[in-house]
Amino acid sequence: MVEVQVLVLDGRGHLLGHLAAIVAKQVLLGRKVVVVCCEGINISGNFYRNKLKCLAFLRKRMNTNPSRGAYHLRAPSRIFWRTMRGMLPHKTKPGQAALDRLRVFDGIPPPYDKKKRMVVPAALKVVRLKPARKFAYLGLELPGSSGPPTSVSGVAGTTGVYHHT
Known about the structure:
Layout: E1 6-10, H1 16-28, E2 32-36, E3 42-44, H2 47-59, H3 76-86, H4 93-100, E4 102-104, H5 110-113, H6 125-128, E5 135-137, H7 156-159, E6 162-163
Parallel strand pairs: 1-2, 2-4
Antiparallel strand pairs: 3-5, 5-6
Helix pairs in contact: 1-3
Organism: Gorilla gorilla gorilla (Western lowland gorilla)
Protein name: Large ribosomal subunit protein uL13
InterPro entries: Ribosomal_uL13, Ribosomal_uL13_bac-type, Ribosomal_uL13_CS, Ribosomal_uL13_euk/arc, Ribosomal_uL13_sf
């Protein structure tokens, strides 16, 4: 039996939509893709605009019983997974199979910390955005930080979008 090559991508410094579109095409073609460090994925636009969009998304809920619907995934890896799901025909068998070929993680878990991580040049923020453009991070752990933060405070901690310094 032939072993399928797993493509391990490092999400740091990539734009959310561009990376998701490229990964969606790869999983539809049959490749297994693993995206690590989803907390370092960037969203174009300033922090306040992205925060308002996230808060508007969090307000959507079922009127009669909110526990029954409109589940809001807050982890950066799950936000990326949901963006990917929107780019796949996930209600069909091929789309479900493609979504099963995708794995997303915050940080770098043990099986993938020893593997070579790739980048997608067409989705990098430094290539796609002008230097003066503002952007926000998808997660708390910013590139260059020493580790995960100990606590989260304020409204920004609940939105899934975080300001860069």
